[in-house]
Design a protein that fits this description.
The structure is a single chain. By secondary structure, the protein is an alpha+beta fold. It folds into two domains: about 15-50; about 55-130, Alpha-Beta Plaits. The chain is about 40% helix and about 30% strand. The protein has four helices and four strands. A four-stranded antiparallel beta sheet has the order 2-3-1-4, with helices on one face. A hairpin with a 4-residue loop joins strand 2 and strand 3. The longest helix has 19 residues, at about 30-50. It is elongated and about 60 Å long. Bound molecules: nickel (II) ion.
């Protein structure tokens, strides 16, 4: 278990008021937990920027009537087989599918995989969210 350290910070009254309003809207019970989350967010961003191993979820909404798209999506996931941990597929309606591709790897490789998939013709929208494997964060 990590040991807790108390610290004090100085900031402008208006900035603190803004912060308190923001964290109240988000439902934080204390400034400490909100600040811990901000630090973790920066830590994850730094891991992404430094090409560390991350996990991520790539959401993809596409039209499966687009010729050869389903085949291309499968081929892309096989090409990056070491990075793709799992895929979930939902048939949204008669034409549209949602896939969530769960990935793990160095951030640049995972971004490359996502760019490849999202640029395929027939993919209507998608987004890659990268996060921590949890090991480095307290
Ligand atoms: Ni489908």
């Amino acid at each position: 278990m990590s040991s807790l350290v108390r610290t004090g910070i100085s900031l402008e009254r208006e900035l603190l008021a803004d912060f308190d309003r923001l964290i109240a809207r988000k439902g934080y019970g204390s400034r400490s937990e909100a600040i811990r989350d901000l630090v973790r967010e920066h830590s994850v961003e730094a891991d992404v920027a430094r090409n560390k191993v991350i996990v991520g979820a790539l959401t993809v909404v596409y039209d499966h009537h687009q010729p050869r798209l389903s085949e291309r999506l499968i081929a892309a996931q096989h090409h990056y087989h070491g990075k793709v941990l799992a895929t979930t597929h939902v048939h949204l309606d008669a034409r549209h599918c949602l896939e969530v591709v769960i990935v793990k790897g160095r951030s640049a490789e995972v971004q490359h995989l996502a760019d490849h998939i999202l640029s395929l013709r027939g993919v209507k929208h998608g987004k890659l969210v990268m996060t921590t494997t949890g090991k480095q964060l307290k």
